[in-house]
Design goal:
Helices cover 47% and strands 17% of the residues. The strands form 7 sheets. A 9-stranded mixed sheet has the order 10-9-8-4-3-2-1-11-12, sandwiched between helices. Strands 21-27-28-17-29-30 form a 6-stranded mixed sheet. Strands 15-14-18-19 form a 4-stranded antiparallel sheet. Helix 6 links the parallel strand 8 and strand 9. Helix 15 packs antiparallel against helix 19, helix 16 packs parallel to helix 19 and helix 18 crosses helix 19. The two termini are 43 Å apart.
Length: 883
């Protein structure tokens, strides 16, 4: 058996050999014939011949092919019946080589009398008898053939194959007899050898054929090769172990085990295997009871593989099926309830926290979706499922959304920056007014003194102070300039010369290197820059002289006031005022520049965030488009379940709460004892903080407030109006609204529906159904579920979920730990791991099998509902048309 159980392989079930009894176009031996089969990578062939198959033919070919290719004997018969074109209709019989020999087949056929279309001589279905008149001169009665096969063989020994089209096909004419014959042959046939375009016809449940009572039937495309060049020219993908019982499985699953396309679908991300390397002293510790026991999986040394499609881990209680699936999840970073309550210990150390890879190796992807029994309950509560839809089915899947969200986040940060700038402008404006007041006071003090000598000295003090301030300012800017320049140089990648921009940057850096103050060096940490600022003795001497001159002027002013009898306090006040005028004048100029710069920055930020609404709309469009796709995936009609769907809405309540909290955080300084902020929030709600609010002017806002029933004499009213007395606070509030109303990821509300009812108002069972169906049908990561049947009705599983699994497993890997036979059998699991602890033992043993592997069929029948599950599967074969 393959490590991954049932797998897709190329099968050519209608392939003639060089021994073919008619129309042989081979000019080669068996060795070349078999090499061509291997070169085409065929897993199974139907070794075909007319009316009989030669023992030596079969034996030589299976010996040459060895174990690389499985060979099914295929005998092609020309029947007595003719089609609308007057051609004799062909049918095939595929024989089970594991239950009957070529000799037994030929012995049975030799008992059948054939129709000699050339003469009245009796002919039987044996090589010598047919060869005496020619293989093209005989036909066979379908009824006689079927009667003999049923008499000599069991139903598991052979399959009847119809040929609906091409030469010898039974495709009917409009004549009633021809139509009845087509019905008969369709009913007799287990499989069809048809064209690729016939597949939909035989799978349909809603066409003329289906309306006659026929059930879907597998359509297999074959090469009908009679020459070396035609081998494998037409093949069919069949998902099965390469055995006859595997072929029989396509009768049960003609849609899901047969694919006539050029390539097959396969999940992109899969968990390939898990391997344990646990020492003998490994124990499982239950943290709730504080007890330890030998770990049941300790002796599992062989690598455990998983099908890329659907794997079921089954077994009795305590055998470890849930442990394996939880261990995979925990090992790949998912938090599990199982390992919150249990630890696997080696020498007292938790292996999931210490050297996990030494003991447990997992091959394949590290991205999974794990659903424990408790997770189903959790997702069935509140808004957990809808949160998952947004985070895992939209954000994690649609890259465009993440890109838009990053852009939006940067825009929201710019709004935050603008709020800070407004606060800075307010703070700078306060400082400016204080400086202006101080300057006005100082000027009044100086102006009050009428002495010309003082006025002259005062004027000189202002001039010298201004000169000193200018030199100091230039000196500081000189130092800051080189500090920022070296930081900028460090941010440039000198190896980035792939385009003209990069090349120009490097040219500029090389020019900067020529500046005397900067030295570039290289060490083990990379490129660095050293700054050595120059000294300018002449300017430094001028600065010192100016400082000395200023001190002399100030002393002369002091001497003057002393000579006229002024008090020391008056002298000090005049000295401070005289010195401050130049300094404060310069500070006022600098503050004015800073305020203007901040205003320009604010305008720039406003321009940069002007398109934020458009980005939000693009995000909403992505959400709605993705939800439409999800709803389409979930739009499966079944009497056992209501339609499940999801809808996007703006989460206004959540937005309002965040806005109110942001408002309080920013204006907390206005808080007064006994103030209830809920009353402030009520005041804010009087003018709805929606997108229209963003277009209001301050004057319009105040006008609208005046018409609202806000008690201005109450504490909350006084505080509220105190806040909005300042126009700047209104500007900040508008930006708080913009910041929060356009934060779409925080405002997304996905509403789930089961039928027409919101999920939040549905029963627990309905919510569990919605959870499991949604998880199955909408994800892309490997899905691991621990006992999905725990919260589900068995009828729902048998009549609905198993079909969903078969639909979805070609797109995402599914792994279940289960004891429900319907998942295993009618979900058509590709690989089944049976865990069992034999009597009187404590360690788990594992058997890996497939549905088509009859060796372990009894173990599957022992599953809960196992016999009924196989009966349900068998009922798919009750074909035939309504009488």
């Amino acid at each position: 058996m393959s490590n991954i159980g049932s797998f897709w392989g190329k099968w050519d079930l209608h392939l003639h050999s060089p021994y073919t009894n008619m129309n042989c176009q081979y000019n080669c031996g068996v060795d070349v014939f078999c090499k061509a089969i291997k070169d085409k990578e065929l897993k199974v062939i139907g070794l075909t011949n007319y009316f009989i198959i030669h023992e030596n033919e079969y034996n030589e070919i299976i010996t040459e092919l060895g174990n690389d290719v499985y060979v099914i004997p295929n005998i092609e018969f020309r029947t007595n019946d003719t089609n609308g074109s007057g051609e004799y209709i062909n049918i095939h019989v595929l024989f089970n080589p594991e239950t009957i020999s070529i000799k037994a087949i030929n012995d049975t056929l030799a008992r059948i009398e054939l129709n000699n279309i050339a003469s009245s001589t009796s002919v039987y279905c044996s090589y010598d008898s047919i060869n005496s008149i020619g293989f093209d001169k005989v036909t066979i009665s379908v009824d006689t053939l079927i009667t003999q096969l049923k008499k000599d063989f069991n139903s598991s020994d052979y399959l009847i194959v119809g040929v609906p089209n091409g030469y010898g096909g039974f495709h009917p004419s409009s004549k009633p007899r021809s139509i009845e014959l087509a019905k008969k042959l369709d009913e007799l046939s287990h499989i069809m050898f048809g064209r690729k375009e016939d597949t939909a016809f035989f799978l349909s449940t809603d066409n003329g054929r289906a309306n006659l009572g026929f059930k879907p039937k597998p359509n297999v495309v074959c090469s009908d090769a009679h020459s070396i060049g035609n081998i494998g020219s037409k093949t069919t993908w069949i998902k099965s172990e390469p055995i006859f019982e595997g072929l029989k499985q396509i009768l049960f699953e003609p849609k899901y085990r047969v694919d006539n396309n050029d390539a097959i679908r396969k999940p992109y991300r899969t968990i390939d295997s898990i391997k344990f390397n646990l020492p003998e002293n490994t124990v499982l510790k239950n943290l709730q009871t504080n007890t330890e026991q030998e770990f049941c999986l300790t002796e599992l040394k062989e690598e455990i593989f998983f099908s890329p499609y659907f794997t079921c881990i089954i077994g009795g209680r305590g055998a470890g099926k849930s442990t394996i699936i939880n261990l995979i999840a925990e090992r790949l970073g998912e938090r599990t309830e199982f390992f919150e309550n249990n630890k696997i210990l080696v020498d007292g150390k938790d292996i999931l926290k210490n050297n996990t890879e030494e003991y447990v190796t997992i091959s394949g992807t590290n991205e999974i979706e794990f659903i424990s029994q408790g997770k189903v309950e959790e997702l069935s509560s509140g808004n957990k499922l809808t949160d998952l839809i947004f985070n895992e089915r939209i954000k994690a899947v649609v890259s465009d959304y993440l890109e838009k969200e990053k852009i939006l986040a940067s825009k929201l940060q710019l709004i935050d920056d603008s709020i800070k700038i407004i606060s800075d402008i307010v703070s700078l404006g306060t400082d400016l007014e204080q400086k202006k007041t101080s300057l006005e006071n100082d000027r009044k003090i100086v102006a009050s003194i009428e002495n010309e000598q003082y006025k002259e000295l005062s004027q000189k003090v202002n001039e010298v102070t201004a000169e000193i301030e200018k030199i100091n300012q230039n000196k500081e800017q000189y130092s800051d300039f080189f500090s920022q320049l070296t930081e900028l140089c460090l941010s440039i990648d000198l190896n980035n010369n792939t385009d003209e921009y990069g090349q120009r940057l490097i040219e500029i850096i090389n020019h900067i290197d020529a500046i005397e103050e900067i030295t570039r060096f290289s060490d083990e940490q990379g490129i660095g820059y050293k700054t050595t600022l120059k000294n300018f003795p002449n300017t430094d001497k001028i600065l010192e002289d100016k400082k000395a001159e200023l001190a002399s002027l100030k002393q002369q002013i002091v001497d003057y006031f002393t000579s006229i009898g002024s008090t020391p306090d008056s002298i000090a006040d005049v000295d401070r005022a005289t010195s401050n005028i130049a300094t404060v004048t310069n500070e006022i100029a600098e503050l004015s520049k800073k305020i203007q710069l901040k205003k320009e920055q604010l305008q720039k930020l406003n321009d940069q965030t002007s398109d934020i609404k458009e980005i939000v709309q693009q995000c909403e469009e992505i959400i709605n488009t993705r939800l439409e796709a999800i709803n389409n995936d979930l739009n499966i009609t079944n009497d056992n379940v209501e339609k499940i769907s999801f809808k996007y809405e703006f989460y206004r309540e959540k937005y309002t709460d965040r806005l109110n909290q942001a408002f309080r955080n920013h204006f907390q300084s206005y808080h007064k004892p006994s103030l209830s902020w809920d009353n402030i929030y009520w005041c804010l709600s009087q003018i709805e903080p929606n997108e229209d609010f963003l277009n209001l002017t301050y004057e319009q806002f105040i006008e609208q407030l005046s018409q609202k029933p806000i008690d201005r004499n109450s504490l909350y009213g006084r505080v509220f109006y105190e806040i909005f007395e300042k126009k700047s606070n209104f500007a900040i509030y508008k930006r708080l609204i913009k910041r929060n109303i356009y934060n779409i990821s925080e405002n997304v509300q996905i509403i789930g529906f089961y039928g027409k009812s919101p999920l939040t108002s549905c029963s627990f069972g309905q919510r569990c159904t919605a959870v499991v169906v949604t998880l199955l049908m909408t994800g892309v990561k490997p899905l691991l579920i621990d006992e999905p049947e725990a919260h589900l009705d068995n009828r729902l599983i048998a009549e609905y979920l198993v079909d969903l699994i078969k639909e979805k497993k070609n797109e995402r890997q599914i792994i279940f730990a289960t004891h429900n036979a319907n998942f295993v059998v009618n979900g058509d699991a590709e690989l089944i791991h049976i865990l069992e602890i034999p009597k009187e033992k404590v360690f788990t043993e594992i058997i890996s099998t497939t549905i088509e592997n009859l060796t372990h069929r009894k173990s599957l029948l022992k599953l809960e509902g196992g016999e009924e599950a196989f009966k349900k599967r068998d009922r798919k074969l009750l074909s035939g048309f309504a009488l």
